[in-house]
Amino acid sequence: MTKNLQWKLLAIVAVVALSALAIYPPEERIRLGLDLEGGVHMVLRVQTDDALQLETETASEQLSEQLSLQGIELTSAVAVDPVTIQIEGVPPERDAEFRQMAEDQLSLSYERESGVSGSYTYRMRSPVESSLRDESVRQALQTIERRVNELGVAEPIVAPYSVGGDQILVQLPGVSDVARAKEIIRSTALLELKIVEDGPAASQELLLQTRNGVLPPDMEVVTGASNMLTGGAPETVYYLVRRVAAVTGRDLRNARPTLDEFNQPAVSFSLNREGARKFGEVTSQNIGRSLAVLLDGRVETAPTIEGRISDEGQISGTFTQQEAADLGLILRSGALPASLTYLEERTIGPTLGADSVRAGVIASVSGLVVVAIFMLVYYRLSGINAIVAVGMNLLILMGFMAYLGAVLTLPGIAGLILTIGIGVDSNVLIFERIKEELRAGKRVKAAVGAGFDRVFLTIVDTHIASLIAAAFLFQFGSGPIRGFATTLAIGLVSNVFTAVFVSRTLFEAVLLRRRTATLSI
Amino acid sequence: MAFFSEEPNFDFIGKRWYAVAVSMVIIVIGVVAIVARGGLPLGIDFSGGTLMVLEFEQPMPEESVRDALAALDEKVVQQYGDSGGGVLIRLPQAGPEQGASLEQGAEQVIEILEGSGLGTFEVISRELVGPIIGQELQRRGISAFVFAMAGILIYVGLRFRFSFGVGAIVAVVHDILITLSLLTLFGIDLSLNVVAAMLTITGYSVNDSIVVFDRVRENLRLMRRDKFDHLVNKSINQTLARTIITSGTTGFAVLALSLFGGEVLRGFSITMLIGIFSGTYSTIFIATSTAIAITQRRTAARSQSSAVQEREPKRSQESPRSGARRPQRAQRSKRNGRKARAS
Predict the structure, then answer these.
(1) Would you tell me which CATH number, out of the four given (1.20.1640.10, 3.30.1360.20, 3.50.50.60, 1.10.340.30), belongs to the domain A2-38+351-513?
(2) Is B253 within 8 Å of A417 when comparing Cβ atoms?
(3) pLDDT one-digit tens code per residue, A41-78
(4) Cβ separation B200–A462 shorter than 8 A
(5) Which residues sit opposite B88 in a β-bridge?
(6) What are the backbone angles phi and psi of residue A126, rounded to the nearest 5°?
(7) Which of B101, B250, B280 to mutate to test the interface with A (most CBs of A within 10 A)?
């Protein structure tokens, strides 16, 4: 019995020591959530349709290019939606040839849906579609990760979010320059270089005047700012550009900030082989015309093509040094094939976070003090037992969280307070039971033993039911609720240990030495 | 020290219909209020929208800010925190999210206030939630609750008896309805934190119910000659001291939270306070009444069965009654009873 008791005490001391070790030093080991530390939380959605659209447009463009080399001219070949190519006006006498070529070019990724009297519809195969979607999400994830890392944020989180498959969670703890961080992440940097057919013009009507106000099907109208070289107040100007980009961000190999010939900040870029081939071809055919550099569909600059450019180019405009550096970073760290949409964005200022921590600590401590005083008054010396058990519970809880690397959030602090409540409840259950046994005329040791034995079952039942609830909270809850569920679950488990095992051992240790007939309870 | 020098003997079960009436009144008022305002008071976490907290350098009455923002529809402007300069502004969801459109409302507010001459301010927090996330959080919240309830029903049903499981769940639903009613009346929006508090209440309420049911289970073995409702009443009284102490201490901890926890935790702590009160009350009256009602209906349905079964609903429920086995089981229970007394 005595030996047994020694082992039990040793186990308790070991657990306390391990927990204390896990927490020490607390500033480093206890990680605060965004709501306490301040920072940015964002949920982004990758517009995977963009990537598909790009793929389909490229495929249809390449097909008509190939056909045209063979002398087969189509009326049109366009991507009518992100996964469908609509082909019109195949000359009837060359139908068989067309089919053969289309088969060669497209059959890997597309299947023919219909083909009547010279018009055909090709649709992307669904495995190709879903792998392209997955790919673009994965690529966006990596890109954002790289950008965030270049921002130099400590312990950022960039992770897939939810079951939808196309959402990304970004958390940047302790970020103070929120605007700049967002600028870098939000810039989707969908880079396109397109040949300018007309413009710039002050309005869309003026732009289309020479074409009788009709927009040709293979062109589109885009906007940009007018102050590129002249300075002064920026005005929106309109350009008529070819719908299909000469080069896109996919073909980009590298980009870095540099200085242009006027010693102004600029961004230079280089293209991969495929991009260089396409770009060389387009630029050599269009010397003297303008080339619009579009970032996310907006013209950044539209320099004139001086000569054939193949693998190296430069974007100059009215950049500040910081803007040029950021644009370089954006382009370098990933030219996203798909743009991003913001679904959720929360910014918590560091002062608010600090206030919450203070409030949470004050609330926890004052709650603890009130409970401690009550336990001492109501249960007298046995109350010390309860306080030790509850305090140890909190220590183990914090230790476990530090060990798991779990983050302490505001609802987590609430979970902490609930843990105090549960710990007190277990002790109350036990003490009330012991009192009852004493009233029934039992001797002290027997009453204590019976109290613990009987209440153990109750505690197991209540705790398992709460654990079931916590498990579902964790499974279905989002960020802050998960923090709560984690805290609660750990608290429940450690409470069984402290309220039953530790408290009982303490009782046994005290009762061992004294042979009293009364118990201070 | 003790609340009761000897075992208390209040007639809770006899008064249960008054309690049910009080609950019904609160819930009906709450439902009327919810219908009158056109649905639950969903916070931006679930409805989508913009929530900003600004801190002005000097004290700022909320009316001035509201007047400055007169051009914006459906905004909510509230004083925030104790500094006097804190203002909370909430805007509804503008439309489907596209690119940076989520930010529009927030930027509009800042632009207007910067031009209004109300003085300098700092944006201390800014939360923008699009409708997609809002719907997803709603869906997640509801499924978390439904699955947690089903899990608890199954667990309590297995460990105790089916009618107890139903009693615990009815009590939880009661608590949720009471809480929703009071939150609506107090004008507190349902945020993620408030939902976390409601789920905590769920756990707390079930915890409470289980403690009483556990005692009923024990008493069913010890006092097999008593009528079921009398036995339940006795169990409630036996655990009353514990119920009061636990609710009291937890209530105090949560009270501390609502007093010192700051603005961010206010919704959470008020919800918890309501829930703790309601949870305790529903354990005493609602959970037990439901269990009794189900048990009595079962007993009534078997009006031809003997008195033994009335007192032993669980055992008759466990397996189809077979006359041959009944005495055996009775013996076993007696043995258990003796053991429990001797321990």
Answers:
(1) 1.20.1640.10
(2) yes
(3) 888 888 888 878 877 887 887 788 778 878 888 888 88
(4) no
(5) B53, B78
(6) -70, -35
(7) B250
